[in-house]
Amino acid sequence: MADAGVTDRFRTWLRERNLPVTAPRLAVAELLLTADRHLSAEEVGDELTALGTKVGTATIYRTLDVLVESGLVVERDFGEGFKRFEPARDIPHHEHLLCTSCGHVEEFQDERLERMTTLVAESHGFARQRHRLVIYGVCRDCQRGSVS
Amino acid sequence: MADAGVTDRFRTWLRERNLPVTAPRLAVAELLLTADRHLSAEEVGDELTALGTKVGTATIYRTLDVLVESGLVVERDFGEGFKRFEPARDIPHHEHLLCTSCGHVEEFQDERLERMTTLVAESHGFARQRHRLVIYGVCRDCQRGSVS
DNA sequence: CTCATTGCAAAGGATTTGCACTAAT
DNA sequence: ATTAGTGCAAATCCTTTGCAATGAG
Questions:
Q1: Model's pTM, two decimal places?
Q2: Which of A38, A127, B14, B121 could bridge across to A84 with cysteines, CB 3.0–4.6 Å?
Q3: B contacts of A98 (beta carbons < 8 Å)
Q4: Residue ranges of the domains in chain A?
């Protein structure tokens, strides 16, 4: 299965700096790197428990930090009161659409945004570092049926 | 002084729905409505204490809720781990620039953003509700001198 | 063996809530 | 008098930290 390869980058990254390659770390990494959704720390824990690979909360948070540091995972804050994590794909920078009804997240890109934010920052005397755009709305599915 | 008039809108709003017009509420409202910065709940409390008008934390949060409900104040989340509040001015919608060094906040407008986000949302099947854009960078002041 | 990681439980920061008490109308 | 608001402390939510036990290299 190709999935095994997903955690290899993390394995390598750990070995490169003589950090222990442990089962909990690999479990979190594999789950997150193959995830198709933007997961919260709690969700990561729940999914792992469901998979029979229970990992302590502290370890989850600590591993998430390591994954973010490794650059394999990106941390997101959509103003929900907690953070979500997504695998860092090749996409250089992308924005998010968040369904305020079910929490579903979609992504999109817009190069104009990059230029626009740089110009705005400059005109205010700011040295731009990054930006964050989130569009809130109701997704297709939620617009239809009841979301019980 | 013209400042007194600032809280009148809040007074009226409260009276209209038979809600008690209390000293703590007016204190929070006056401070916030005349603020020139985006304040956090904690800052509101500190400033009030400094002014000799100490208000309990719970009351501050409860009053902030009321103020937001009244539409006189707007709540912002810049991903700092806490919320900030600003008086709702006439500006229909504006974006923010946040200095990652000192926390200074500046605002700007861009009508194109409104249109762009609506189009993007539509193309993804989302019914757009609102959006949030924050540009992070280092402000002019922080780019110079040391920020001790 | 040695040092980093793990897990649990306690600690933290921001915000909320329960409740007896006080105040607005 | 009523009814809602107030402050305090306890409680919650998400996340971090202390520490003894465990495991990777």
A1: 0.89
A2: A38
A3: none
A4: 4-87, 95-144
